[in-house]
Amino acid sequence: MAVLRFKAIESAQNRTSVPINLHSEKVSEYFGINTFSDKVMRSTLSSDIYKQVSQAIRQGSTISNEVADAVASAMKSWAIGRGVTHYTHWFQPLTGTTAEKHDAFFDIDSNGEVIEKFKGSALVQQEPDASSFPNGGLRSTFEARGYTAWDPSSPAFIMESGQSKTLCIPTIFISYTGEALDYKTPLLRALHAVDKAATTVCHFFDREVKQVQATLGPEQEYFLVDKALFNSRPDLVMSGRSVFGHQPAKGQQLEDHYFGSIPVRVRDFMVEFEYEATKLGIPVRTRHNEVAPAQFECAPTFEEANLAVDHNLLLMDLMRQVANKHNFEILFHEKPFAGLNGSGKHNNWSLGTNTGVNLLGPSTKAKENLQFLTFFINTIKAVHDYAPLLRASIASAGNDYRLGANEAPPAIISVFIGSQLMKVLEELETNASVQIGKGENLYMKLGIDKVPPVLLDNTDRNRTSPFAFTGNKFEFRAVGSSTNCSSPMTILNTIMAHQLNTFKDEVEEEVKKEPKREVAIVNVLRRYVKESKNILFEGDNYSEDWAKEAEKRGLENIKSTPIALDAMISESTIKLFEKAGVLNKQELHGRHEILLENFIKKVQIESRMVGDLAVNHIVPTAVKYQNKLIENVRGLKDLGIETESISTMIEAIKMVSHHISQIQKLSEEMRVARREINKLEDTREKAVAYDEKVKNAYFDSIRYHVDKLETIIDDEDWPLAKYRELLMIR
Ligand code: ADP
Ligand code: MG
Question: How far, in Å, is the centroid of ligand 2 from the Cα of 221?
Answer without folding.
Answer: 10
